[in-house]
Amino acid sequence: MPLLARFAPGLAALLHYKLADAPADLRAGLAVTAVALPVGIAYAELAGFRPEVGFYSSILPLVAYAIFGTSRQLIVGPGSRRASRHSHPAIRRLTRRYP
Fold first, then answer.
1. Positions of the chain with pLDDT under 70
2. DSSP states of 16-31 as a string?
3. Which of 30, 86, 83 is nearest to 59 (CA)?
4. How distant, in Å, are the alpha carbons of 33, 37, 46, 88, 91 from that of 94?
5. Rounded Cα–Cα distance for residues 77 and 41 (Å)
6. How buried is 65 (Cβ within 10 angstroms: 0-12 exposed, 13-18 middle, 19+ buried)?
7. d(CA 54, CA 41)
8. pLDDT tens for each residue of 18-40
């Protein structure tokens, strides 16, 4: 197995990418970004972090997994169950701050 494929399978797969798939992949990427960014930013603010934290935590895991992951399907983001459990104290703080 070549060294690149062993440590960064996503980059190795990029060498065999078909340009005919680019328009569909671009549309899919824009659709995911349109949903993932606002959700990540909202969860970061609910947890008491700056919006930039939500921005970077939405994008960087996807990029890292695309490079170092072994699957072509990526699902990375905050889970509703976990986010709702952690957001409860943040919601109480917000309702006290902004009645």
1. 1, 74-99
2. T--GGGHHHHHHHHHH
3. 30
4. 26, 21, 8, 10, 5
5. 11
6. middle
7. 4
8. 999 999 989 988 888 888 888 88
